[in-house]
Amino acid sequence: MAETKREVERKYESDDSGLPDLTGVAGVADVLDKGVTELDATYYDTADLRLAAASITLRRRTGGSDAGWHLKLPVAPGVRDEIQAPLSDTVPDEIAALVRSRVRTGQIVAVVRLRSRRDVRELLDHGGRPLAETSVDAVRAERLHGGEGTAEWTEIEVELADGGDPAFLDKVDKRLRKAGVRPSASPSKLARALAETAPPKQRATAAGEPVPAGKPVTAGDHVLAYLRAQRDAIVELDPAVRRDAEDSVHSMRVATRRLRSTFKSFGKVLDRAVTDPVGDELKWLAGELGRDRDREVLTERLTTTLDGVPADLVRGPVSERITTWSRAEHDGARGRLLGVLDSRRYLDLLDTLDALIADPPLRKAAGRKPRKVLAKAVKKDVRKVAGLVQRARELEPGTDRDVAIHNARKKTKRTRYAAEAGEPALGKPAKNLVKTMKGLQNLLGDHQDSVMARQTLRELSAVAHAAGQDTFTYGLLHEREEQRALRVEAELPAFWDGIKDATAGL
C-alpha cells in the first residue's frame, strides 16, 4: 500500500562541500548526528524523459529508513508530494497508474543510477522535537539510458520536519548563505544527473525541459495558448484525481469543458471538421468526471438544506439516508472513473490533444491580429446567451423552462471560457465579461442544482416509502428547493437587464 508524504526541502552547494554550524539558527537548541547512510537509487522514466520534463521523479532506492519505490510529484517550488511503496522488482501498479497520463502506452526504463553517501544531522528545538533534517550527500551518477556518462558532486539538503513551519527554512537559509553556501542550480539530483551525464550535443535538453512557448502574436497563437494550458491541466490533474484529492475531479472536468468550448467558440480559427470529433471525446470525459462531482454538489446542498429544518419537522433517518446514498454513489462513480483513466480511449484522447496542439488545423483567421478575431467570436457567444435567456424568460414555470435555463447556463459557461481565452489580447473588457458571465453562470447553476436536488429527493423518498418510513421531510425539502428555483427565475429578468451591455469595450 502506497503512502504519501509532503516533502518541503531546499538544496544547496558549496565550494568546500561542508555543512556549516547551525546551532546559531533561531529556535535550534541541538544538532543531532544521525550517522552516515549509503543509498543506491535507480531512476526510471520514458526514453524521451517525459517525467523529467514535468519535474516528476520515479525511483527505486535501497538503503536508509525508507527503502522502496518513491514517486515525487511537484506541488510548488521546493514542495513535492512523495508517494512511497514497498520494494519490488517492478514498478508497483499503484505507482504506475499515477504516471500513466505522462507515460501512456510508452515503456518505463532505467535512465540513471545514483549512489550517495549521506551524512545526516537533525535540528532539534528546546523540547527535543525535530525542526528539520540536514544532510551532506556525496553523489555519483551513472547514465543507464541515452548515454554512458558519469558525474560526481556534493550537495546539501535541508528538509522540513513533518508538520513544521516553512518559515524555519528561511532561517536556515540565511545562516547557510552567510557561511557561503548557495542554492543549488538544479531542482533535483535527477535533473543534475541527466544534464551532466548526457552526451555533449544533448546537454541543452538533457533534463527533458520543454521549450518555452513564444509570446502570442496572432489570433491562433492566443487560442492555442489557452488550449495548451487546459491540456496541461488535464494531464497534471490526473494523479490528483486518482488519489481522490480535494477538488481535483471538478478542476479536471472544467479543463475538459474549456477545451471543448474553445473548439466551438473559435471555429473561425480552428477547423471544426477536425476539432468536433475531439470535442465529442472531451464531452464523454467530462460526463464521466461529472458523475461524482454532481453527487458531491447535491450532497452538500441537501445536507445544508436539511440542517435548516427544525428538528420537529425531521421525520425518520433522512440524514442517514442522504449519507448512505452519497457514499454508494461515490464508490460506484470512483471505481468507474478509475477505469476510465486507465482506458485506451482516454489515453488516445490525450495523444490526440497533443497532436492537435502540435499541428493545429488553423484557418485563415488564425493568422490575423487577435483583437478583432477574438472579440467577434466572444460577441457571437454573448448573442447566443441573450437568445437563450430571452427564451427562458418567455416560458411558463415547468420542465420546458428548466431545460431552457439549463441550456442558457451551458452557453454562459462557453462564453465565459471564450472571454478567458481572449483576455490576454482583449484586456479589461474581456476580464469584466468573464466576471459577468460567472455571475450569470452561478445564478443559473443554482436553478439547475435545484432541479437535480428535487429529482434526487423524489428518488430518496420512494426508497424511504418502500422501507415503510415517513416521507414528510423529503416533501418539505422538495418544496423548499422548488421555491428556491422560483426565486432564481424571478431574479433572472432584472439580473439579465443589468448585463445586456456585457460586450461593451470589446
Automatic annotation (TrEMBL):
Domain CHAD: 216-504
InterPro entries xrefs: CHAD_dom, CHAD_dom_sf, CYTH-like_dom_sf, CYTH_domain
Region (Disordered): 196-215
SUPFAM superfamilies xrefs: CYTH-like phosphatases
Superkingdom, natural source: Bacteria
Membrane-spanning parts: none
Stretches assigned to the CYTH domain: 5-200
Annotated protein name in UniProt: CYTH and CHAD domain-containing protein
